């Protein structure tokens, strides 16, 4: 609403003579004035049409001024409407009560014309500010929603298929956009599969922009270091690290990245772990191994080396890769989910990759309860079928 | 999170009390970069009262260690607690940041 538009006022008073006097004055000043004859009538009119300021009498039959005020302040849709209480001089104590209930101002009868105008203008100014804030919040919300949709497209639309292998992945963002991602894609002609889980530091839009950069760089690096006779995920992380640290060093953004190249035929998994929580490898026999970091977080300093390590997945083995949003998820009581509880979920064999993922998500949901998510949660499960 | 700054000779000791998360990390960044901008490039991060840091806190530390070193100083840590140490180790920060058991030793490491 521009300030050139007349304020929309609702005058609520059960006394007809008072009401008419006030309406005539206000209309002379150019306001658009509607009247209500009691509290109930006022609420009906407020629900039916938008108003900027309500001039509300306190003593009325059919819902008095207090009751109308309480209902107004309890109604989120009407929260922006400003309220000026109208009172007789001997009602000053009750005016205090109204201010405590959320009224903005008060006027004592009989009204002084200048004071009346000034109070209404001041309330209108406040209302317009709130309307502008609400408009701004809505447009920001829309922008973030667009960001969320675009970011979702940076995740693989579907997971690769390989005979004898199962893949499952999930990402739950704490905010509309965030810095976590997973990736799974075919590399080169030999049918190798690139697998990644990464967590860009910090949160929000900045992390989301770097997420797109890391994900893209990692795919480029995978094509370069994942197709040779011996894939080298460590060299891929080195390439990404040096690019980010050199070209984007001033942003001081880094990411923890687990990147692996799987040969589905042999079950060989070459991996590099740049500062990521160690993925858990559950052997078919029940033993749990941790794929420990082979280097620091990626993107901090140029020249950092990342080693490549190897494991072989046998039939029945399952690998769970996860972001720290899992282990650091806080429950209702403030406790962290923790590594031990997660590892405890691997005692029972995984029926499938999807079942393992659902098992972790279910247990995590039980831990978190109604507590708000503080970080993105990303999970990637890989299982070699028996 | 609360930040207290004390000067010991030419070393600025920046003590963090509480948790560093995405909301509080910018405050830590501002405190550390404020010291560097004022020419105090020998910094000690006193983490004896810090029970948790998210990656946003690590980012603040990374920025300060880079900036202080490029001005001939350094950021060193003191009295890192168990939870925070785990995060620093996992992400490889222990390989880039010198860490000491207490503030006195961290300050002394700058050689007066």
Q: Count of helical segments of chain B?
A: 4
- CATH architecture name of chain B: 2-Layer Sandwich
Mean pLDDT of chain B: 95
Number of helices of chain A: 10
Classified in CATH, the superfamily of chain B is: STAS domain
Shape of chain B: globular
Proportion in β-strands of chain B: 25-35%
Mean pLDDT of chain A: 93
Number of separate structural domains of chain B:
1
CATH names the topology of the largest domain in chain A as: Phosphatase 2c, domain 1
Largest sheet: spatial strand order of chain A: 2-1-3-4-5
End-to-end Cα distance of chain B, whole Å, is: 29 Å
Distance between the termini of chain A: 66 Å
For the record, the CATH class of the largest domain in chain A is: Alpha Beta
Q: What's the total number of strands of chain A?
A: 15
The description of the largest β-sheet of chain A is: 5 strands, parallel
Uncertain segments of chain A: none
Order of helices and strands of chain B: EEHEHEHEH
Largest sheet of chain B: 5 strands, mixed
Polypeptide structure, described:
The complex is a heterodimer of chains A (386) and B (112). Chain A is built from ten helices and 15 strands. Chain A folds into two domains: 8-146, Rossmann fold; 154-384, Phosphatase 2c, domain 1. Chain A starts with 7 loop residues before the first strand and ends with a strand. In chain A, 41% of the residues are buried. Chain A is of the alpha/beta class and 386 residues long. The longest helix of chain A has 40 residues, at 113-152. Chain A has helices at residues 16-28, 39-48, 65-74, 92-101, 113-152, 204-225, 233-247, 324-327, 339-344, 353-368, and strands at 8-12, 32-36, 53-57, 82-88, 105-109, 165-172, 180-187, 192-200, 255-263, 268-274, 280-282, 288-290, 309-312, 318-322, 377-384. Chain B has one domain (2-102): Transcription Regulator spoIIAA. Chain B contains four helices and five strands; from the N terminus they run E-E-H-E-H-E-H-E-H. By secondary structure, chain B is of the alpha/beta class. Classes of the chains: A alpha/beta (386), B alpha/beta (112).
């Amino acid at each position: 609403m521009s300030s050139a538009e007349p304020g929309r006022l609702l005058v609520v008073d059960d006394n007809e003579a008072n009401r008419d006097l006030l309406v005539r004055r206000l209309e002379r000043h150019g306001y658009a004035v509607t009247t209500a004859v009691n509290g109930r009538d006022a609420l009906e009119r407020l629900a039916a049409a938008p108003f900027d300021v309500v001039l509300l009498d306190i003593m009325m039959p059919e819902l008095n001024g207090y009751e109308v005020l309480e209902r107004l302040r309890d109604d989120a849709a009407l929260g922006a409407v400003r309220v000026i209480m109208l009172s007789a001089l001997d009602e000053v104590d009750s005016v205090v009560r109204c201010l405590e209930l959320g009224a903005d101002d008060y006027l004592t009868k009989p009204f002084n014309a200048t004071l009346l105008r000034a109070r209404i203008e001041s309330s209108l100014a406040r209302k317009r500010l709130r309307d502008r804030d609400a408009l701004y919040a809505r447009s920001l919300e829309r922008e973030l929603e667009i960001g969320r949709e675009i970011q979702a497209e940076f995740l693989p639309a579907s997971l690769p298929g390989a005979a004898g292998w199962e893949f499952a992945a999930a990402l739950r963002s704490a905010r509309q956009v965030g810095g976590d991602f997973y990736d799974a894609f075919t590399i080169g002609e030999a049918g190798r599969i690139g697998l990644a889980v990464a967590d860009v530091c910090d949160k929000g839009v900045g992390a989301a922009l770097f997420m797109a950069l890391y994900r893209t760089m990692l795919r480029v690096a995978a094509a370069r270091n994942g197709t040779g006779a011996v894939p080298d995920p460590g060299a891929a992380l080195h390439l990404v690290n040096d690019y980010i640290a050199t070209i984007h060093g001033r942003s001081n953004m880094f990411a923890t990245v687990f990147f692996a190249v799987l040969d589905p035929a042999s079950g060989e998994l070459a991996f590099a772990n740049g500062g990521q929580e160690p993925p858990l490898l559950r052997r078919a026999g029940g033993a749990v191994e941790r794929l420990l970091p082979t280097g620091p977080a990626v993107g901090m300093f140029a020249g950092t080396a990342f080693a490549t390590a190897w494991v072989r997945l046998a039939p029945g083995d399952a690998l769970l890769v996860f972001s720290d949003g899992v282990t650091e998820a806080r429950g209702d009581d403030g406790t962290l989910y923790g590594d031990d509880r997660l590892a405890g979920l691997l005692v029972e064999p995984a029926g499938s990759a999807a079942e393992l993922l659902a098992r972790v998500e279910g247990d995590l949901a039980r831990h978190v309860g109604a507590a708000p998510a503080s970080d993105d949660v990303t999970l990637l499960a890989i299982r070699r079928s028996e | 999170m609360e930040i207290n700054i004390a000067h010991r000779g030419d070393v600025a000791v920046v003590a963090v009390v509480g948790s560093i998360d995405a909301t509080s990390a910018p405050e830590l960044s501002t405190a550390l970069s404020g010291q560097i901008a004022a020419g105090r490039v020998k910094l000690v991060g006193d983490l004896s009262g810090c029970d948790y840091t998210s990656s946003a806190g690590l980012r603040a530390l990374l920025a300060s260690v880079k900036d202080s070193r490029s001005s001939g100083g350094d950021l060193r840590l003191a009295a890192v607690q168990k939870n925070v140490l785990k995060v620093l180790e996992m992400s490889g920060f222990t390989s880039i940041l010198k860490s000491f058991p207490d503030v006195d030793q961290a300050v002394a490491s700058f050689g007066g």
